[in-house]
Amino acid sequence: MRSYSLIAPAKINLYLEIIGNRPDGYHELAMILQSIGLADQIDVHSISTDSIRVHCNHPQVPTDKSNLAYRAAELMAMQFPEAFAQYGGVEISINKQIPVAAGLAGGSTNAAAVLVGIDLLWKLGLTQPELEELGGTLGSDVPFCVAGGTAIATGRGDQLSPLPSLDNIYIVLGKYRSLEVSTPWAYKTYREQFGDSYRDSDNLAARANAVHSGAIVKAVLDKDAGEIAQKLHNDLERVVLPAYPQVLQLREVFANQEGVLGTMMSGSGPTVFALFESQQQAELVLLQVREAIIDKDLELFVTRTITHGIKVVSSV
Ligand SMILES: C[C@@](CO)(OP(=O)(O)O)[C@H](O)COP(=O)(O)OP(=O)(O)OC[C@H]1O[C@@H](n2ccc(N)nc2=O)[C@H](O)[C@@H]1O
Ligand SMILES: Nc1ncnc2c1ncn2[C@@H]1O[C@H](COP(=O)(O)OP(=O)(O)O)[C@@H](O)[C@H]1O
Questions:
Q1: What are the domain boundaries of the chain?
Q2: Which residue, judged by its Cα, is nearest atom 12 of ligand 2?
Q3: What ipTM goes with this model?
Q4: Given phi > 0 = left and psi -120 to 50 = alpha, else beta, which region is 270?
């Protein structure tokens, strides 16, 4: 095969607790990550020149080495030089549907798709744990994007424990097109404002692992959407909501709509999501929010929880 098309789903954070400062400069996290139906399409092709090329339909996404998909291809070329020499270069086309810098892991899921696509293109036969480990060197959220579904993530966000899949919880996502939140800024600001409360760096991993026995994990195991929605949590809201009043307002508008089980910001934001029992309720609330906030800058999507990560849709 000389070409693969892959679906690269976005994620939301059902739970994000910042446990403390790690010696490597990152933050120890306890998270629950959930794949959603909103996805990019990634095409990877073998090309005869020994180069890596990236194309993207979204003007804000870089196509040079700063693109995480480019870096994933470069990593594969460095790790598997013989295959790179044998199969030649790689052309990557990104059809971007996931909002950029939105807290939805758009770059991470593109990188995960490139790892999976090149593994197939070069017939490497890597296992999922091997792909996840490679992904972890590109970004904290990349291992989850390879695996997908529903998972507890600890460490930098790269240590995964799968949970039973949550299918068909419906979601409305709201994101202001012109608002982007920098993830490093969000963590740095959190550390500056709240770092004192977690200066004790002992037993970080043990404290993060306590999430396994927490109430939201129990709700996920029970597949109880209402209870999951009651237990949504994101520590990064403490810094992002005060800095971005529009995000706070959107969250409040969601919270006041009938049928909303719960609402929260995803990751470092600024996307806000709301959970629903049915697609019909989600679609109705999307219309109500559109009427409540008349702003062309606000994009709204209906989607749902899904049970997979990167998926191959065609090969030629
Ligand atoms: C906040 C989260 C929640 O899922 O997602 P997004 O909002 O980016 O989607 C993640 O923690 C983001 O993951 P990802 O975007 O892969 O992060 P990385 O590239 O590894 O790190 C970007 C920067 O975030 C900070 N960072 C990230 C992860 C972590 N555990 N501690 C940190 O302090 C560091 O400043 C790092 O330089
Ligand atoms: N393939 C990619 N898709 C989206 N953004 C990318 C990609 N590669 C690099 N970036 C850059 O990464 C930054 C974070 O974007 P993204 O991964 O969408 O957000 P988040 O980390 O909030 O989930 C953006 O500023 C963007 O320029």
A1: 1-316
A2: 107
A3: 0.98
A4: alpha
CA angle 24, 206, 240 (to 5 degrees): 60
Q: Using alpha carbons, select from 109, 168, 178 the residue that is nearest to residue 139.
A: 109
| Integer Cα distance of 298 and 52 in angstroms | 35
Structure tokens at 82: 């013989």
Could you read off the pLDDT of 33-46 as tens digits, one per residue? Answer: 999 999 999 999 99
Query: Which tens digit of pLDDT belongs to each residue from 222-266?
Result: 999 999 999 999 999 999 999 999 999 999 999 999 999 999 999
Distance of CA 102 from the midpoint of ligand 1 (Å): 12
Dihedral of the CA atoms 234, 136, 104, 119 (nearest 10)?
A: -150
Collapsed DSSP state (helix, strand, coil) of residue 157 = coil
Asked if residues 141 and 105 have their Cβ atoms less than 8 Å apart, the reply is: yes
> Considering the entire predicted model, what is its pTM?
0.97
**Strands (E) located in 112-251:** 150-154, 159-163, 170-176, 233-234
Ligand in closest contact with the CA of 29: 1
How many helices (H) and strands (E) in the chain?
Answer: 12, 12
Nearest CA to ligand 1 atom 19: 139
Q: What's the 252 CA to ligand 1 centre distance in angstroms?
A: 25
- DSSP at 305: B
Rounded Cα gap, residues 40 and 99, in angstroms: 10
Please spell the DSSP secondary structure of 215-251, one letter per residue. Answer: HHHHHHHTT-HHHHHHT-EETTHHHHHHH-HHHHHHH
Question: Cα 142 to the chain's mean position, in Å?
Answer: 8
61 lines ligand 2 (CB under 6 A): yes
Residue ranges around ligand 1 (CB below 6 Å): 13, 16, 26-27, 29, 31, 103, 105, 108, 139-141, 156-157, 183-184, 187, 267-268
Annotated catalytic residues are 11, 141
State the CATH architecture for 1-316. 2-Layer Sandwich (3.30)
